[in-house]
């Protein structure tokens, strides 16, 4: 992937219950492309990742979302997992942070169940995106158009369905993030 993201700083927003591979593979992809990746979460310390329903590894938090500023980042990645976005979507600071990327016209990527967070941030109406199939009704009720594709891009919003789609998701986020203005 080269160094197409050299000098870029990417926020990864996640908490306990994140699907580990949906955090680690995109993070590795942007770092391999030259970016710095920060893990933003609800509280300091570590978060507990999962491999489906089994505990995975723990990951150190770089910054608490209440103290995070959109201006410090070039793009945002929202990994999935079932519990992770359900915890995140209820937090006022998370919703503010996510909306800030859309308000600033910065690219955002979300995979699997992560669009739940986008729904509660109020940023899916009028957009086309994909997700884990069970979110289809939630997304359409929030005013989005849902498509069943491995990866879909709508005006800087990159979405993907599931871990099997990670190769396409990772390639696409690097490409989209490289084309974004800092």
UniProtKB/TrEMBL annotation:
Belongs to the peptidase C56 family. InterPro entries: C56_PfpI-like, Class_I_gatase-like, DJ-1/PfpI. Residues 8-176 form the DJ-1/PfpI domain. CDD domains: GATase1_PfpI_like (cd03134). Pfam families: DJ-1_PfpI. This is Type 1 glutamine amidotransferase domain-containing protein. Keywords: Glutamine amidotransferase.
